Amino acid sequence: MAYPQNSRSFVAAAALLSCSAAALAQSTLPSVTVTGRSADTPVSVGGFGETPIAKLPMQASILNAERLQDLGLSNLAGITALDASVGDAYNSSGYVSYLKIRGFDLDNRFNYRRDGLPINAETALSLGNKTGLEVLKGSSGIQAGTSSPGGLVNLLVKRPTAKDLTVLGLSVSERGTVDGSVDLSRRFGESQAFGLRLNASAAQLKPQLYDADGNRQLFALAGDWRVSPSTLLEAEVEWNRQSQPSQPGFSLLGDKLPDAKAIDPRINLNNQSWSQPVVFNNQHASLRLTQKLSADWTAQAHLGVQRLKTDDRLAYANGLYDPNTYDCDPCDRYSSTGTFSVWDFRSENERRNSDALDLNLSGKFSTAGLKHQLGTGVLFSRFNSRFQRQAYNLVGVGNIQGTAQLPSDPSLSDENTNRDERSTEFYLRDSVQLGADWQVWAGLRHTRLQRDSVRTDGSRATSYSQAFTTPWLGLGYNINSQLMAYASWGEGVESEVTPNRKRYGDQAGQALAALKSKQLEVGLKAGSNTVDWSLNWFDVQRPSWRDIGICKDATPGSCERRADGNAHHQGFEAQADLKWSGGGLLASAMKLKARREGSADDSLNGLRPANVPENSLRLQARQNLPALPGLQVQLGLVYEGPRAVLPDNSINIPGWSRIDAGARYEQLVGKTLLTWRVGVDNLSNRRAWKESPFQFDHVYLYPLAPRTWRTSFEISL
To answer: pTM for this structure?
Structure first.
């Protein structure tokens, strides 16, 4: 596999933060040695129960709440600073978080889980009541019926703790964002059989981005009942709301890439007097019954319900259109003089409802001298979206200085699309121990789905059903007690329908053949008390669809959608968690070769996908200072290489790097633990184009956020 010779050295200059906090405390914490190892942590999204990361033939990351707090992260987009394989995929401030893994965009409808159950991530998901996140990298056919081949993200809900817990928090950041929170956990009843955990928070948002003030609230309650030593009943509910104006992207100026150093990254082009916030109202609830059938077998029933309501509103900057003919020049970018068309977009009272029920059985047994760990079950899921007509009206011409003020037009001029989906997924997973050193994993998921859609005026209806089976195989060999070599192969699947438009003729509204992606991965994993590391190579091939022809509704039957080649992503990943006395280093790197292959149009072959860097690096260092017990300083580096702006690769944005710094100081005052955090993101105030998503046939450019300070205070009683 030949890569372009564009590797570069990553040089990070480390600067120690020093602060004096002695006056804040009567006593301080003694130094603590942490003996736990991240490689020993189970990863539930892997699909093999409580098996630790280090013992699975796949790559996954666990990001715990403490790590997220140290970096001041409050949304999913922030986790791109922690893992080189995870990148931005159209991350606009105040809006939904979009991620990519291994160069593939995750589908917010199908690639997200909440305690293992599928959820819809077309909303602002709260992290305030989450104990951590799991990120599975690579094809997920044994964990998901349909999904993008990049991987899965699983949110882990905070549950009642074994001991009473009281944590009060207050943070201040940006231009005056203030966030207060409470986390309470109690056990009561005979033998403390009942547990409750309350998480609540409220924030007033004043980000660095201009004209984007908002607010955010969370209330979540989780409970459990230890009915007997063999029976556990868990229930939880969550309500969260975010109201904040979102951020349109910048774009190319004609054929020119604007200089990121000349653009103020705080300018918000959504600054009309009539601009309204995007409002996300989310409700989640789940009920889980776990029954121990014997020493080796466990049954579980897990029900999840999600109810989302969104008011999506934006002064939308897009192309440069003639207000009479709607012809555009240019269509996919701003004009060379920095002007663009502004559209009054409003889609209010959007409803997205999801329900999921997972019934499963897991256990251990031996046969013919082989030890098995078996898991099997069925997942029923249902999703529907209900929309109203939307406003999408051209109101005038704006500019990149953000000075133009235009009239509004909220008239509901455009139809929306309602969707329904039902799926049933049968799955079987087995792990077989072959002697002392060899282990085999196998999985199979059979999915049956029914999907329907129709415009809000009853037009363009589509309906189809499909069934498919996705297998997965893994093989591991223990080279020694701390080092494992592995190989795995699996399939994933995506399902699409040709849009019911006149341009497609008889093909309109018809189901396309299921897109089956395939992944091969080989690697090494090792773990000890001083370092956990892994090195792996992956190869993913995903079929591509392309529209061929004139493709205009004015010419019925002028367009054909057909399979045309593959998106082929090959890459190396390296991860390491180094630990030494009083400190450590978390590092990850990815070198990716993503190319279009096998297209009937040879001009497309060999092209890189837009907004995907070939090189990425993450470093997070931490060190306790013996001179001041309880104080830890932290330093982070994020590097991403150049990436294509246009699908034809004719324009690229340069690579960039960002240095973040922080400190955490812990004090023990009597029996009360005080935790102080301070940090600064983009320490050097670097200006660059952070990402270049090509979405909705339009080029967008999002700038790197300017230097941002943050501080927080936490009391644990």
So the answer is: 0.93
